[in-house]
């Protein structure tokens, strides 16, 4: 399975939107980068589906443009005018050459889901590797209306419980992709460290 970040050259604030190539070509989140559909088209002329981790504006800003260009199925937990398939906790979604379990992980957003296979984790914003607050395991912010640190902590615990030992790669909504390090940190270590930091219940950023 090949995964390409199609928003890595963005000069606006956006999430990481990932194009997953393989038996089933899928875009995880759409981002806010103008022209993202053209970047997707550089790699494929067919897009089977878009899967949304959640519907914050930086993840869905260019969804309409992607749908207009490719007419894919759209999978989302919460209602959206362009949604064609509702996903719930425990559902399975085929992406690339792998099958992913949907894990409901709210806290940063009420509709947040993560996508877990035997080898890969698409974590959205519930856990990221580095984001300016922490460099080796961080968690989504929870200080805005509708967000909950307590619910996010529970979500991280759930994600860790359902994360196979075999997972090698983490594709987060922000920051860098993380790959297991030989003799060093694993994806599970990163999630566990994010959980421990969230459990301190201190502001994520000192000025918050």
UniProtKB/TrEMBL annotation:
Keyword Protein transport: no
Superkingdom of origin organism: Archaea
Cofactor: Zn(2+)
Keywords: Hydrolase, Metal-binding, Zinc
Gene3D superfamilies recorded: Ribonuclease Z/Hydroxyacylglutathione hydrolase-like (3.60.15.10)
SUPFAM superfamilies in UniProt: Metallo-hydrolase/oxidoreductase
Record-annotated membrane-spanning stretches: none
GO MF, any single term: metal ion binding
Ranges where the Metallo-beta-lactamase domain occurs: 14-174
Signal peptide range in chain numbering: none
Record-linked PANTHER family: HYDROXYACYLGLUTATHIONE HYDROLASE GLOC
Name listed for the protein in its UniProt record: MBL fold metallo-hydrolase
């Amino acid at each position: 399975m090949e995964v390409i970040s199609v928003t890595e050259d963005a000069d606006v604030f956006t999430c990481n939107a990932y194009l997953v190539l393989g038996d089933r070509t899928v875009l995880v989140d759409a981002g806010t980068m103008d022209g993202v559909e053209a970047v997707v088209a550089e790699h494929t002329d067919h897009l089977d589906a878009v899967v949304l981790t959640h519907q914050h504006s930086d993840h869905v800003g260019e969804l309409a443009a992607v749908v207009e260009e490719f007419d894919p199925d759209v999978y989302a937990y919460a209602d959206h005018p362009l949604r064609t398939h509702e996903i719930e906790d425990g559902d399975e979604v085929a992406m690339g050459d792998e099958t992913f379990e949907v894990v409901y992980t709210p806290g940063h957003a009420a509709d947040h889901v993560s996508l877990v296979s035997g080898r890969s984790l698409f974590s959205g914003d519930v856990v990221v590797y580095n984001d300016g607050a922490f460099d080796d395991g961080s968690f989504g912010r929870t200080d805005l209306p509708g967000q909950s640190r307590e619910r996010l902590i529970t979500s991280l615990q759930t994600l860790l419980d359902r994360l196979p030992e075999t997972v090698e790669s983490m594709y987060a909504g922000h920051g860098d992709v993380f790959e297991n390090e030989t003799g060093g940190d694993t994806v599970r270590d990163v999630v566990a460290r994010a959980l421990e930091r969230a459990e301190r219940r201190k502001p994520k950023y000192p000025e918050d």
